[in-house]
Design brief:
heterodimer, A: alpha+beta, 4 domains, globular, B: Helicase, Ruva Protein, domain 3, 8 helices
């Protein structure tokens, strides 16, 4: 099977080349036979890549250490689940994983669009196949997972124990699923540019894919944050590392696209801008992959210096050049079909939302590449770290949070003064009350105060929308609150799914601001000794060391410390933290020592204990942190995922055809009742 | 001309031959063993340079006492870049990766300088003197690196201004949109809601998709 996999990879290369060539030829010559052959070539590429993937998984699960990739990423003692996930833990495997997802996505996208977008299909197929060709060629020539060693090692090197974690098992595939999904809208955008069919039709084919990309990127990013928090022991979850930034960039542009696409759907505006956003999202995904693999920028995640960097750079610049040319030569076809009626309208609010999202994306991109610019311009190596990113992005983020509340409530076309008053009076008062109460309680820092005030404002706008909708349903359909709520969401998934996502964003911002009040203590405790500290809420904590214990399970040596924990004199139980040294089958140390963090999590506060080291067998060196509101990052992320699912979920019921608009309109009496509910 | 069947037959034979040859080669290689495990590092985390630490020492100021509290010192360490090859600051690195020997060494230097009476700025300058500009966690706000700080803000302000001007220019207030209002809901006497609001609410109640 391994050999079949290896061979399949080469056949996939030929198939992708074929599909690219004949699809573009079919599009240019308007020959349906060539187009059909190109599409079949794409399907065949998918089949071949699946076989190659099965081959690599077989090699991993059978622990065939004659393959360099297997020997470098797994060991005989590793749990099977991480042997399975080792598929994407290294350079070559992750590139094959990219190709696997892309060929699958491409097959689905083309199969489902062949009839609806017949004119776009040859160009979209050609573009998907061209991208596939690049990835498979990189796999074949620069990072082949089937490369064999000249010798047969008794055991493999294994995977870094910090990566043997549930979060790290599922974080990369989610990110890849998100990154790769940007290729489908890109392919359709290129097809629309080639064919000059730049009406709203092509958008219909790409919106779901953009949503899918956003959905998986969101899950991937949040899981990455969770992994960093529970595994790395630095009591934070986002360090503005270049690779973290690289996943954030396409998320920002995709988010901008998902907002601006509504304006094109509703008003026929922003046609150029939407093409640019789709293209940008894909190019930033490639940029992220390039950053991770080229070693041009220091990152804790880098795959070190690798030969694929130049390939990615070439592909990135080539794709950018072609796209810029296509967009530049089709500007006239991208003229808006409608004009803006008022600066005080939802269209304008969404445009400013886009400005801020892209502004943040630019700031992150700029900070990420500035070390290269500095070294290139004046030979000085510099670091651009969290102080820069926080200073630049916090104001933009707060403005964006404010617009999150404004955008959905303001009227399309032109908002009247009465509309503004009615929609925003209550939320503005709620936001103000939140800020005043927190100020009275002693919170005097400006940024957190503004954040919580805005969180209150946005939360109130969301609550107001749900309340109005449920009241209206109750008034007309006489439903209970719960039934009304579910029907409301089910009948208008895009809007209310979006509100759920916004609720998740509010939680994230509240949690981010909470970290401004984090406190941290370096402590040394012998058995029986205690440490006392006050948390940011003013509660008195006491930690009593139960001593250091050692154990040696199958593949590791463990030193653990247990702290009996009290808050305001009330016993809360134990928090345990460990240091682990993983061993290979011969008992030799594998990698450095790693830390298992002890976390006691509540809605208000995480108590975070890290065993830094052990002296004289029973003296524990510890770092104890009080991290407010961290759990809301995970809840907010989960809510965003739910909102994304609601938006993406296909409508379960088809709407019955109506005899014109009047048929769906409530009667005069119903409308009066409905307005009463408002 | 080769028929399709003939082509497939030949291709199949060729593939089988390649498979058999490669299988034989693999078996031959498996017979060869080696006494070492893999040394090639394709691991996913960065390679640490444990020898990167260099002394950052200055003589204590006359009659020196600690220039800051422990909390302030920790905050200062968040602005000094650990040189082990990670992207973290000294404080985060030394409290995160306990196999790093560089950040504890840099921490000791910070402690000595704090005890020697040096201010935060003097300490950062001392580290920059030894390690170069990479010792800072963020570029300094002067000279060429000022560009890093101002560019995002300038871009957003300029883009925002241009966007506002563009919107203003394209703004075409229209007195009563005939199409929208002709097909939209009529105003309800005594109800304080615009037709647009009523339409949106009704669409939600009826289950029409509208984001």
């Amino acid at each position: 099977m391994i050999l079949i996999g290896e061979l399949s990879l080469w056949v996939a290369l030929l198939m992708a080349a074929w599909s690219t060539t004949v699809s573009y030829a079919g599009g240019a010559m308007r020959r349906s036979d060539l187009t059909a052959s190109g599409v079949r070539g794409l399907y065949a590429t998918f089949a071949m890549v699946v076989l190659a993937a099965v081959g690599l998984w077989t090699a991993l699960l059978s622990r065939d250490f004659s393959l360099e990739y297997v020997a470098s990423h797994i060991s005989a003692t590793m749990p099977s689940v991480y042997i399975f996930t080792a598929f994407w833990s290294g350079q070559a495997g992750s590139l094959l994983f990219w190709a696997l997802i892309l060929s699958m996505y491409g097959t689905i996208a083309i199969a489902t669009s062949r009839k609806r977008n017949a004119e776009l299909v040859p160009w979209a197929t050609g573009t998907i196949s061209a991208i596939l060709l690049f990835f498979i060629a990189t796999n074949c020539f620069k990072a082949n997972p089937f490369t064999r060693l000249d010798f047969l090692p008794p055991d493999g090197r294994g995977m870094n124990p910090q990566l043997q974690n549930f979060g790290m098992a599922v974080h990369p595939p989610n990110l890849y699923l998100g990154y790769v999904a940007t290729a489908i809208p890109f392919a359709f955008a290129i097809a629309a540019l080639f064919t000059r069919r730049l009406d709203a039709e092509w958008l219909g084919s790409v919106r779901r894919w953009a949503l899918l990309s956003w959905f998986f990127l969101t899950i991937g990013i949040v899981l990455g944050m969770w992994w960093a928090y529970v595994e790395l022991g630095w009591s934070g979850y986002w360090a503005w590392d270049p690779v973290e930034n690289s996943s954030f960039l396409p998320w920002l542009t995709t988010t901008a696209f998902l907002h601006s696409i509504m304006i094109q759907e509703k008003r026929g505006m922003l046609r150029k801008w939407n093409v640019v956003l789709v293209v940008m999202s894909f190019l930033l995904s490639i940029f992220g992959t390039f950053i991770t693999r080229s070693g041009v920028i220091e990152s804790v995640h880098s795959f070190a210096q690798s030969p694929v960097g130049n390939w990615f750079a070439t592909f990135f610049f080539l794709s950018t050049g072609i796209t810029v040319y296509l967009v530049g030569t089709r500007l006239k076809d991208l003229e808006a079909k409608a004009e803006l009626e008022s600066m005080v309208s939802r269209e304008a609010a969404f445009l400013y939302n886009n400005l801020l999202l892209i502004g943040i994306a630019f700031a992150v991109f700029w900070g990420t590449i500035f070390p290269i610019i500095s070294e290139w311009a004046n030979g000085t190596k510099i670091t651009v770290g969290p102080p820069f990113f926080n200073a630049v992005n916090v104001p933009l983020g707060l403005l964006l949070l404010g617009l999150t509340g404004v955008g959905p409530l303001i009227a399309w076309r032109k908002a009247s003064v009465s509309n503004l008053k009615r929609q925003f009076a209550t939320p503005a008062i709620v936001g103000l009350i939140v800020a005043v109460v927190l100020f009275a309680l002693g919170m005097h820092s400006l940024a957190p105060l503004m954040t919580y005030g805005l969180c209150g404002f946005v939360a109130a706008t969301i609550g107001q929308e749900f309340t109005k909708g449920v009241r209206a349903r109750r008034a007309i359909h006489h439903e209970s609150v719960i039934t009304g709520f579910f029907h409301l969401v089910a009948r208008n998934r895009r809007r209310y799914g979006g509100y759920i996502v916004h609720a998740g964003i509010v939680m994230l911002f509240a949690a981010f601001a909470g970290m401004a009040f984090r406190t941290q203590h370096d402590v040394t405790l012998a058995t029986g000794q205690s440490f006392e500290a006050r948390d940011p809420y003013g509660h008195q904590w006491k930690f009593v060391s139960q001593g250091v214990s050692t154990s040696s399970p199958r593949d590791r040596l463990v030193e653990a410390v247990g702290l009996e924990t009290f808050r305001d004199g009330k016993r809360l139980g134990f928090i345990t933290s460990e240091k682990r040294q993983y061993l290979d089958t011969q008992g030799n140390p594998l990698f450095g020592k790693i830390t298992e963090v002890g976390i006691r999590s509540t809605a208000k506060l995480d108590t975070y204990v890290v065993l830094a080291g052990v002296r004289n067998t029973d003296v524990a060196e510890l770092t104890i942190s009080f991290n407010p509101l961290v759990v809301w990052v995970w809840i907010g992320g989960f809510l965003m995922m739910i909102g994304g699912l609601v938006v993406m979920w296909p409508q379960a019921e088809k709407r019955r055809p109506q005899a014109g608009y009047a048929a769906v309109m409530p009667t005069q009496a119903e409308r009066a009742e409905l307005a009463g509910a408002v | 001309m080769t028929s399709r069947r003939e082509f497939l037959r030949r291709a199949g034979s060729g593939a089988a031959a390649i498979l058999l040859a490669a299988q034989a080669d693999a078996q031959q290689r498996r017979g060869v063993t080696h006494d070492s495990t893999i040394v090639k590092d394709t691991a996913n985390l960065f390679a640490m340079d444990q020898d990167a630490a260099r002394p950052v020492r200055l003589p204590p100021k006359p009659g020196a006492s600690p220039s800051m509290t422990v909390t302030e010192r920790d905050e200062l360490e968040r602005h000094i870049h650990c040189q082990c090859g990670c992207t973290l600051d000294v404080f985060t690195c030394r409290t995160t990766d306990f196999s790093c020997q560089v950040s504890p060494s840099m921490h000791r230097d910070v402690v000595a300088l704090v005890n020697g009476g040096y201010t935060a700025q003097e300490i950062i300058d001392a580290f920059v003197g030894v390690y170069g500009e990479r010792a800072r966690m963020a570029p300094k706000k002067s000279g060429f690196t000022l560009l890093a700080w101002v560019t995002p803000g300038v871009m957003v302000v300029v883009a925002g201004t241009l966007l506002s001007m563009w919107l203003k220019r394209r703004e075409q207030p229209q007195v009563r949109r005939s199409v929208a209002h002709a097909s939209g809901p009529r105003a309800v006497p005594g109800v304080d809601a615009t037709p647009e609001e009523l339409a949106r609410l009704e669409a939600a109640v009826k289950g029409e998709d509208d984001a």
